[in-house]
Amino acid sequence: MVFYFHGSLLNLADLASDDIGCLLRIIEKGMPCYRCEIAMQHVLDFDFEKACSISLSNLNVYACLVCGKYYQGRGLNSHAYTHSLEAGHHVYINLQTEKVYCLPDGYEINDPSLDDIRHVLNPRFAREQVQHLDENRQWSRALDGSNYLPGMVGLNNIKETDFVNVTIQSLMRVTPLRNFFLIPENYQHSKSPLVHRFGELTRKIWHARNFKGQVSPHEFLQAVMKASNKRFQIGVQSDPVEFMSWLLNTLHAELKSKKTKRSIIHDCFQGELEVVKEIHKKVLTEKKENSDEHNNAVVAEGGAANDDVVRETSKVKFLMLGLDLPPPPLFKDAMEKNIIPQVRLFVMLDCLASAK
Question: Domain named USP: which ranges (predicted)?
Fold first, then answer.
């Protein structure tokens, strides 16, 4: 817990018992010549939309470090200024610039003890730190004393948004994708709010200095609803496969290079499938008039029985590939539950190689 006292911030853990008692007596007397403040870190939540709680504007918004509410502006007659007078809360942080001010006096507070709050507001990673992220896995402790593992934190289910949460948790396991979005400079050229909200959510999930052991994807969901024209929205259940397909294609469209038409999405997920079709020569002759230039027609080798058959080979690129799962068993286990069959991914891929 941090106190703001007469122009400086004091950490309660660094004060002697006599100093704490003196400070509490000053606060209790309510002396008007001092600005005594408590920065309540446990009430700060930067996961929600950064908009003023009164005007609902997202321009020049400040967070009160005492109650955690958002207010617009810090000038005379602004909502933050009025709140500082009515509630007696005097320390505010600008959610965009990360600067901290004392209101209603209006001067900036420069103190290293506020860095923890800044890191939670806008998590940041160095490139060297990202490269060794998997090698230095350590448990972190939240303000409530609970332990959490960065990258494995829970996501709040706001209202039937579990299809989004399971998709995000899956994508967070893809190391190249994670490393790309942990560095905002990699996608600063993009003007898409969806790209930046996804990057911000990635940094929060992998941040080791969070105040809580869970993250709320509220801002990311707001960007999803806007980008999808409410095709995916809070309160409406959707198919996670459909959502993942839409998300990957949308992120690729916003990130792809104008020259190469490639992006981190295609680098991570795009595959190539070779399709071989056996067709009769008569059908092939009719099809050649409208055939694709990339198709290769190879005459099948063999006896006279194959003289009228040709093989047409083509390569198809894909982001998602449907595979057949094994059928569930008829019998139940000792716990009267159906046994969930387990099969290796490569076994299911072998079925494609043998399919005709």
Answer: 153-356
The whole-angstrom separation of Cα 122 and Cα 116 is: 10
Q: 296-350, pLDDT tens digit by residue?
A: 544 444 444 445 777 888 888 888 888 877 777 776 666 656 667 778 888 887 7
Structural domains for the chain: 2-119 (3.30.40.10), 123-267 (3.90.70.10), 270-354 (no CATH)
Contact criterion met (CB below 8 Å) for 263 and 292: no
The identity of residue 112, as a single letter, is P
| Neighbour-count burial for 243-264, b at 16+ CB within 10 Å, e otherwise | bbebbbebbbebbbeeeeeebb
Cα 161 to Cα 151: distance, rounded to the nearest angstrom? 19
Are the beta carbons of 43 and 210 closer than 8 angstroms? no
Give the Cα separation of 325 and 348 in Å (integer): 8
